[in-house]
Amino acid sequence: MAYRIPSRVARRFRLQPAAGALAALLTLGAASAPAPAPVDVQTLETLRAADMRLGAIGYRLATANAPLCADIAPVPGIVVHAIDQYAESEQPMAKAAFDFATGVAVEGVVPDSPAARAGVRADDSIVSVNGQAVPVASGGGHTRTRDATVALFDAQPVNRPLTLVLRRDKAERTVAIAPSAGCRTLFELRIGTAMDAVADGRLVQISSAFLDRLADPQLAVVVAHELSHNILRHHARLDAAKVSRGLLRELGRNGRIHRMTEDDADRLGVHLLRNAGWDPQEAVRFWHGPGARIDGGIFHSRTHSSASKRAELIAAELAALPNGAPIPYRPPVLATRDQPLL
Fold first, then answer.
1. What one-character-per-residue DSSP string does 210-225 give?
2. DSSP letters along 39-107, please?
3. Cα separation of 58 and 113, whole Å?
4. Nearest CA among 293, 283, 273 for reference residue 218
5. How far is residue 290's CA from residue 210's CA, in Å, rounded to a whole number?
6. Is the dihedral of CA 15, 90, 206, 334 positive or negative?
7. Is the Cα dihedral 311, 316, 320, 323 positive or negative?
8. Which terminus of the chain has a lower count of CB atoms within 10 Å, N or C?
9. Distance between CA atoms of residues 332 and 127, nearest Å
């Protein structure tokens, strides 16, 4: 669990883009970056596809594991974005690609989700959520409007239909989305070549490099691990224990407690995978394969166990799974989330 939020706006990422698209993707939305190549519709569609790849994995994990989460929210299966996430020079092309009849739009809908069944479609612009207008977008190159819209969704009750007013082709329609509870976490990718992952209690942020190197089941291992940090309240518990996340994070008590939280996230993460319908042995294979081959980043830090030890720990956790364990299963490690880190 790396706690290194980048200074640039956390925006979009590459997913094996076509030649010529990479320069634009690596600088899109970065105020201090060199001038990017012209952003075109193909580039923006590449971004959308990558967003939806993570969105579908996050949706599956969050909804399947809602009974394990102390903090839940409506999770209808919508990935939203706001026009001011794009630099002002990029906004005309973003409007052409994504409509944005209002400042906030549906970037994509997870297949077979409540939103998909209700008829919500990509490029529907959002007017209101349960009678509350979406925030007004302004400026460019920031996520404030997107984040405020996500907070608006999160504030709605999970046991009642979610009513959206949507605008498309100058016409408005109202849709009612069936209740859908899930773990309250925003899943986001950021541009970057380093293998970094972040969990801060509210956010799971994954570097774009993971999408380039991993197939979806392997990517789900990484996302489940980070979601486990949020479920186990590690960010708040590390703060309460006054554990350093700076230069001293690998030393002494700091390193020991960080390793303990990482091991616990591995223990819980394999159950999140199983609850969501993935083969939990995928996590063991990951640490014997891609996880062991990744150089640098979070995997070779002294705040984490070695890849081989992580594979052994996860295999032992699965071996201890009771015969006929239900789905969803609440593993013993879940009981630690309200305990101080010592």
1. HHHH--HHHHHHHHHH
2. P-HHHHHHHHHHHHHHHHHHHHHHHHTGGG-SSEEE--SEEEEEGGGS-GGGHHHHHHHH--SSSEEEE
3. 12
4. 283
5. 10
6. negative
7. positive
8. C
9. 43
Q: Any idea what DSSP says for residue 173?
A: E
Percent residues over pLDDT 90 in the chain: 69
pLDDT tens digit string along 119-151?
999 999 999 999 999 999 999 999 999 999 999
How far is it, in rounded angstroms, from Cα 106 to Cα 116?
11
**H/E segment holding residue 255:** helix 252-275
Cβ-contact 80, 73 below 8 angstroms: no
d(CA 27, CA 308): 36
Residue closest to 224 by CA, chosen among 178, 183, 181, 269 = 269
User: If you search the block for the tokens 């999408």, which residue do you land on?
Assistant: 211
User: Residue 189: its pLDDT value, please?
Assistant: 81
Predicted local distance difference test score (pLDDT) of residue 175: 98
Q: Sign of the CA dihedral 319, 324, 329, 335? A: negative
Give the C-alpha separation, 325 to 342, whole Å: 30
pLDDT tens profile 82-132: 999 999 988 999 999 999 999 999 999 999 999 999 999 999 999 999 999
β-bridge mates for residue 132, sequence order? 129
- 300 or 114, greater pLDDT: 114
What pTM was estimated for this model as a whole? Answer: 0.87
Length of the chain: 342
Tokens of 146: 């997107």
For residues 265 and 270, give the distance between their C-alpha atoms in angstroms, rounded to a whole number: 9
Distance between CA atoms of 41 and 175, rounded to whole angstroms? 28
92 CB neighbour count, 10 Å cutoff: 11
Of 139, 160, 192, 270, residue with least CA distance to 25: 192
